[in-house]
Amino acid sequence: MTLIPNTNSEELMPSNNENTYLYKACHSLLRNIKGDRSASEIDAINYCRSIIIDLPFALKIIFDQSRDYKIRCSCVVYSRRYCRVLQSAIRIATTASLDRSKYVRYRAYELFACSQHPECIQLISNSTELYNDQLSLKYASAAIDSIKSKNINYFIDHKHTGRSFLKYTFLSTTDLASEFGREWFSEAVSQVAEVERIMRSLSDS
To answer: Could you read off the pLDDT of 185-194 as tens digits, one per residue?
Structure first.
């Protein structure tokens, strides 16, 4: 399964000034995430999803700046639907898997399991070398089992009963291309460096 490199929606607006404005608007909204899954928080996330392709990249900035584990958990959760198509989703989970909070690490293992990428097994193992508490070891093992078995449900169905399910939806590259327009989507993927520069400048402001 091939992941698209980190990229945000680029050239959504024809003017560079307008494009930068969109990133500023999203960054301002995301900075108000409280990790409470409130209606206003969900609305903000949905708005950002509608105008930038790579939401996990933007959420990673918020993750890195936050001292509240609930906010860091939410950043991983909101990145989960992208875990099969965007490398930035794996990147935020990689950071989260080394987080000091066991609850944040749990969300990281969940995202790894949902991604079904074999490369994530080593990332999970790296985490357990640092953290070997009972919860971390339990779900790290479950994530690895899920990936090796090619069944995301095994992340919660530890005994393989077939009665427990992860009812999540995941985006595909086709979904992204359909949502944003194929020609524009191809252009967005090619603009990685410029987009990262814009997002970093916003995080410093």
So the answer is: 555 555 444 5
102: left (phi over 0), alpha (psi -120 to 50) or beta: alpha
Give CA 195 to chain center in angstroms: 17
Instruction: Give residue-wise pLDDT tens across range 1-58.
Output: 445 444 443 333 333 444 566 667 788 888 888 999 888 889 889 888 887 778 898 8
Report whether 58 contacts 28 (CB < 8 A): no
Quick: pLDDT tens for 156-175. Answer: 999 999 999 998 888 877 77
Burial class, 16, CB count within 10 angstroms (exposed 0-12 / middle 13-18 / buried 19+) = exposed
In terms of pLDDT, which residue wins out, 110 or 29?
Answer: 110
Give the Cα separation of 167 and 124 in Å (integer). Answer: 22
Contact 15/193 with Cβ under 8 angstroms?
no
- What is the rounded CA–CA span in Å between residue 159 and residue 192? 42
> Which residue, 174, 7, 203, is CA-closest to 89?
7
